[in-house]
Amino acid sequence: MKKLKNIAVIVFFLSTFSYAGDMEKEEEVRLNGEQTLLVDLSNLNQGTVILFEDQYGVTLYKDDLVRGGKYNKRLDLEMVPQGIYFLKVDKRLATKTWKIQKSSEGVKILGSSSTIGKPHFRTHEEVLNVYISNPDKQPLNMTVEDGSGVILATVKASGKDFQKSLDFSRVPSGEYFVKLYRGEEEFTKKVVIN
Fold it and tell me: What pLDDT score was predicted for residue 144?
């Protein structure tokens, strides 16, 4: 019996380490030859969007995941002009980006991927809770605007985490826009009060 327990413990640890290794390989973008980009992603949620954009933000390829799970795609970049491109995996709370360069020598992935956290907006009755992780402590500005674009409130912060509750229970019916700015990034949430 003791021997069986020891074997079970060893199997558990081996499977845990194997699972941890798989987690590190969750998202892999690599080259296959000179002109093909291999995108191999796993543990994706429903609603994840895969984007391939040029340096001006023009979307050249978009794939909306109806189901979560794994995603495997080969992107042939032979017909794409030389320049800088971005492969983005846009999830609910973060966007992971790879910078890609196409030159006369072929295609290169520049550096490693970067992840940008996105705000989480949660509405409960007429209260909107806003949360965003800000590990670089960048300046954050949040505005609340009415449907005409008039700014009703402004909040500034620069902490590691930003959390704010906005109570819309005493405002007139209509549309409101909560805009959160972090550096060059802008996130907008529309709130409709009946």
Answer: 96
